[in-house]
Specification:
The longest helix is centred in the N-terminal third of the chain and has 70 residues. About 45% of the residues lie in helices and about 15% in strands. The chain is extended and about 145 Å long. The chain has four domains: about 80 residues, no CATH class; about 50 residues; about 230 residues, Rossmann fold (3-Layer(aba) Sandwich), CATH 3.40.50.720; about 140 residues, N-(1-d-carboxylethyl)-l-norvaline Dehydrogenase, domain 2. The protein contains 19 helices and 14 strands. One of its GO terms (molecular function) is NADP binding. Keywords: NADP, Oxidoreductase.
Length: about 600
């Protein structure tokens, strides 16, 4: 029975399971039939969105590849998938990609373009027409000091304005220099470099040698040049009509007496160095040839070589009268015994170093004596002529805040070589060329002798030999030499010389002065002659030069300062006495 029941229950359970499967299939078919329409719409939207994304990705890839080909790309452009940000929400890259207008307000401002961190290419809108982005208000910044809140920026703007002003001033100066030299420089650096280059486009050199100053030294040099075979032309500059009249009255020649022989030279031209009027406009000086005719007005053609032998205190006024005839290519040869004349000429006559002629300093040791005739002199003892070219110094400053440019030119110009070469051909002059420092040492020794013999002879009113035989004069001389030695050994430009203190020791200087006094004997010094005549002396270029250098270095020299004031005071008293003198008939 049990088995029958079991068998009867088995088909019933199969029928029930079949019914369940049929009902489940019907439910699934009904669910599908109910949801078929909504799934088709979603699938269509997904396909459209995917197509849009593919289009955007393709356009972005084409733009990035073109940029990489043109500019080489950047680190972020090389592999955008590898370097994509891990957090796509809120990063600057994502903001730039999906909101380019918003990123404009976040990017730092740049005067050239808007920089980005991830690449030089920024996602642009799909519009074909380019639209000018609206610039935020904070980018409308103007370089106006009033609108600048930062004090440091204000200072930088003021410094920039000063530099622009300095550049304009330099350009104006360069135009003046270019106009004078006939050159055009593109920049200040080109102009500075041109200073070290020889000028090849200048006018040809005029070989005529002009003589300014017709004292004993000037007449002797002019006479020696004219005596050369194939000598260059020599022109004598005269500043007074009376001097021209004496020139013609004495045969228009210079006479030099050597022993029992008279040497005469007539190969000269004369010119007036200052304007003066004649009593008769048709006045002439017949009997001396057509080359001796001249006018009262000085000529205007340039002077290339000039020898100056005037008294030092008259040099500035003499050069001012012919300054318009001197150029920066001219050469001036100063022949004097003192120091400080070149500095005075720079200050009073040629203050601009770019328009300044070339200087040559010289010193003559010949013993010459004048006579009653104006153009006749006596050579008592031969000597030598030492000369040295003074280095030209150029000091320029590019802007107020820039360092100064200093240039020292030691080269010899064409005019300087021509002049010194001509003097070297003269055997009577025994010309020797020295370096600037060697010449300075030699000139200091001559200056010390002139600062001792001349002033002491004026104070004691005696001949040169009296200074050796008078005990008080000898003591004064030794005390002055100690001051001079201490000053010269302290000069900064001489510190590199070996044995400086031995050369300028008081004993060595005293031996030099005693030797000069023994050679001069009972002669009267030039300073004493000028003081007795009521004329000015050259003491400012002897003791005055030492006094100026001592004050620059802070060295006390009370004896030298007192001697300087004594000589100047005595000269002023004698000049006043000569001017107040009224001649009477008994004096004739």
């Amino acid at each position: 029975m049990y088995s029958a029941a079991k068998d009867s229950s088995t088909p019933e359970s199969g029928e029930s399971s079949t019914k369940k499967e049929r009902s489940k299939a019907q439910e699934e078919e009904g669910f599908k039939s109910n949801h078929t329409e909504p799934d088709a719409e979603a699938q269509k939207e997904d396909d459209e969105q995917a197509e849009i994304c593919r289009t955007q990705k393709a356009s972005s890839t084409s733009v990035e590849s073109g940029t990489l080909q043109e500019g080489g790309g950047s680190f972020w452009d090389s592999d955008p998938e590898q370097h994509s940000p891990t957090n796509p929400d809120g990063t600057p890259a994502e903001i730039e990609r999906f909101h380019p207008d918003l990123y404009q307000f976040m990017a730092p401002w740049s005067p050239w373009s808007r920089p980005t961190e991830r690449g030089s290419v920024t996602q642009q809108p799909h519009e074909t027409a380019e639209e000018t982005p609206v610039q935020p208000a904070w980018q409308d910044f103007k370089d106006d000091p009033e609108s600048c809140d930062d004090w440091q920026s204000l200072v930088e703007l003021e410094e920039e304005a000063l530099r622009m002003t300095d550049d304009l001033e330099l350009r104006k100066k360069m135009r003046l220099v270019n106009a004078s030299r006939g050159k055009a420089y593109g920049s200040w650096r080109a102009y500075v470099q041109s200073l070290a280059q020889p000028e090849t486009d200048t006018q040809p050199l005029n070989t005529t040698i002009h003589m300014l100053g017709l004292g004993s030294a000037g007449k002797y040099i002019a006479h020696s040049i004219a005596a050369l075979p194939n000598a260059p032309p020599v022109t004598l500059l005269m500043h007074r009509p009376l001097m021209m009249q004496h020139w013609h009255d004495e045969g228009a020649a210079i006479h030099v007496i050597k022993g029992n022989k008279i040497n005469t030279q007539t190969n000269f031209h004369i010119e007036s160095s200052a304007e003066f009027s004649r009593q008769d406009p048709h006045q002439q000086f017949p009997g001396f040839g057509p080359n001796l005719e001249h006018t009262a007005e000085p000529p205007n053609y340039p002077i290339d070589t000039l020898i100056v032998t005037t008294q030092t205190f008259k040099t500035v006024s003499a050069l001012n009268s012919i300054k318009h005839r001197l150029r920066h290519t001219s050469t001036i040869f100063f022949v004097n015994d003192g120091l400080g004349l070149a500095e005075l000429v720079n200050e009073k006559v040629f203050p601009d170093p770019y328009f300044r002629p070339t200087y040559i300093l010289g010193n003559m040791t010949h013993d010459l004596e004048s006579t009653e005739r104006n153009f006749t002199l006596i050579e008592k003892n031969p000597g030598r002529l030492e000369c040295s070219k003074l280095p030209q110094q150029f000091v320029s400053q590019v802007g107020r805040s820039s360092a100064q440019l200093r240039k020292h030119d030691y080269s010899w110009t064409v005019g300087a070589s021509h002049l010194v070469g001509t003097l070297a051909r003269i055997p009577e002059l025994s010309t020797s060329t020295l370096g600037h420092k060697s010449f300075y040492v030699s000139q200091l020794q001559t200056l010390v002798a002139g600062a001792i013999i001349g002033p002491l002879s004026v104070v004691f009113d005696a001949t040169n030999d009296y200074l050796l035989y008078n005990y008080n004069a000898s003591l004064t001389m030794k005390s002055l030499l100690e001051e001079f030695s201490r000053l010269i050994c302290s000069l900064p430009e001489l510190q590199s010389l070996p044995k400086l203190r031995d050369v300028f020791s008081p004993k060595k200087l005293e031996a030099t002065i005693v030797s000069k006094i023994n050679k001069s004997g009972k002669n009267v010094s030039k300073m004493l002659q000028a003081t007795r005549a009521g004329d000015r002396t050259d003491i400012m270029f002897y003791n005055g030069y030492l006094d100026r250098r001592s004050k620059q270095l802070g060295i006390d020299m009370p004896r030298n300062e007192m001697l300087l004031q004594l000589v100047r005071g005595k000269g002023a008293m004698q000049s006043r006495a000569m001017n107040n003198y009224i001649p009477w008939e008994e004096d004739k």
